[in-house]
Design a protein that fits this description.
Length: 173
């Protein structure tokens, strides 16, 4: 198959343009739209991770009514935090039961008809900056979706470079 026939490249120009922006939400929205062609997700969120407080704060949401930007979640002591934020390994929840076990907001997720999830740690220089999260309306996750989510996390990484970290607001003595 010739390279110009690969669907994988469709939409990359929009992601590249957004990556040059100083507005991370532009990049996150472009990555969300790009990833939708192979993930077919119904909700995408992007969270910044604060290791000092073990909280994640929402930087982007494809559904700001249900999951507003600025919302945060306490993740200290959870298996999910250990796997995704500390060990920097993806979480793949293939059904409602796995979502129920890992997320306090299971009822809100279920009310949106979402049945599976892929949470990908966004990592640079061996530091977890946050996560990009994709939720689908069908149970089950295919290997290609996992790889697509991993690619989306890589494409979203520059957006974290323009977002102030909690340390930016602290004085250094």
């Amino acid at each position: 198959m010739p390279f110009d026939d690969l669907k994988l490249f469709e939409g990359l120009d929009a992601v590249a343009r957004a990556a040059r922006s100083r507005e991370p939400q532009e990049l996150f929205a472009a990555v969300d739209q790009y990833a939708c062609q192979f993930l077919q997700h119904s909700l995408c969120t992007v969270n910044r991770y604060d290791p000092a407080t073990q909280r994640v704060m929402r930087l982007y949401s494809s559904n700001p009514t249900a999951y507003p930007v600025g919302g945060s979640k306490e993740k200290a002591g959870t298996d999910w935090a250990r796997q995704v934020l500390i060990e920097q390994r993806m979480f793949v929840g293939e059904d409602e039961a796995s979502i129920r076990l890992s997320f306090d907001d299971f009822e809100a997720i279920r009310a949106l008809g979402l049945q599976s999830v892929i949470n990908v740690p966004v990592v640079a220089r061996d530091i977890c900056l946050g996560t990009i999260n994709f939720l689908m309306q069908h149970p089950g996750i295919h290997a290609a979706q996992i790889q697509g989510a991993r690619l989306a996390a890589l494409l979203a990484t520059p957006g974290f470079m323009t977002v102030p970290t909690p340390e930016d607001g602290r004085s250094s003595s």
